[in-house]
Amino acid sequence: MAKKTVKKPQAVRPRLSRPVAGPASSVSAPLISTLPTPSSSRLPSALMSAIPSAYTSEDEDDGPPAKYDVSTIPIAKLRLTDQAPSAENQAVEDVPITAGAAENAAAVEAETDADLEGKGKEPVKPIQPFRFLDLPSELRLKVYGYHFQGIDPVTDLSPDNYRKVVRKLFLLRTCRTIYREASYYFYSRHTFRIFPTHPGRFFKTRRPLLARLKQHQRSAMTNLELRLGPGFNKPPKCWVVQRKLGLKECINVRTVHVFVQLDPSVSWLDGFRKAGFYETFSSSLLNDILAELPNVDTVEFDGYESVRKNCPIMEALQAIVRDHALRVTWGPKNGWTATSDNAANMNAMHGAGSGRVVINIGGNTVNGLGPGSIIAYDNGIVSVA
Known about the structure:
Elements: H1 45-50, H2 87-93, H3 99-117, H4 137-147, E1 154-155, H5 161-166, H6 176-189, E2 191-193, H7 209-212, H8 215-219, E3 223-228, E4 255-260, H9 277-292, E5 298-303, H10 312-323, E6 327-330, H11 343-350, E7 356-359, E8 374-377, E9 382-384
Parallel strand pairs: 1-2, 2-3, 3-4, 4-5, 5-6
Antiparallel strand pairs: 7-8, 8-9
């Protein structure tokens, strides 16, 4: 007898009903539940059809997935906002992450973890920079003095200025206050040469140093130098006092230093210069300079040891200073004093002692001469030791 095969009844999956728009009915439409209905529910099918859901079931979601659905967006691209990423952001995000970017991200995460672990501890205060302008002005001036060390005491046009001077002046770019203080300190504490003497392209330049500076820089100067000797046979054309030098703007200049490098009247220069030319040129140049400076009151003479105090060029220069009724001082290099020449020139002039008469006014003697000794030479020169 053949066995009778009994088929098991298949479980019918309940389907959710959708609201269908129909003609207006007096019967009110069933309320739509806001709660999601699970796909496999044990509720009777009649109850499920009576309370339709607004969410689609798995069977009803047969179309293609949404472009920005949660299930299709990678976790790395999720955002807290509900807006879809723009085209620009999408283009940037599609760039693959490099090894360097991964290392940076790991470092940021490590710092974030360290910050989280350090919660509850007292935060470390950042180190505040030192406020230079809080110092008193006296201390700031001392700092400027240390900063400008290494610059020659006499500033002239020279190829070394960029290495020695210009780099030091970068300090003036800090702020307005430091610019005013440091620039005044630099221009008032250094001596500036009126006409260039450095051999080369600067010696015959048409723009001396003073002509290259600004008015407020010239007004801060207190010392100028005139160096005589270079170009004794043919001085440069730029060695002339004119308006572009700005000497009238040097209102704080009180002292003019005159440095004589050589005596053009010595015999070994015969044939290289015209007698008396450079003496006249130098005295005329000094006269024009003193006439332009409004507040000068002192002229300091100095030179090399070979230059005699009573040589023709020195006598011509001293006569110009006396005409302007200015005070005369003597520099430290040569060894001149108000009453005598240096020891080397005196020994060279009177030789072994012949042709001189010494009248000792003082008591003690120094190098054979007592203080206040009057020396008369056979050439008519009289000096007091």
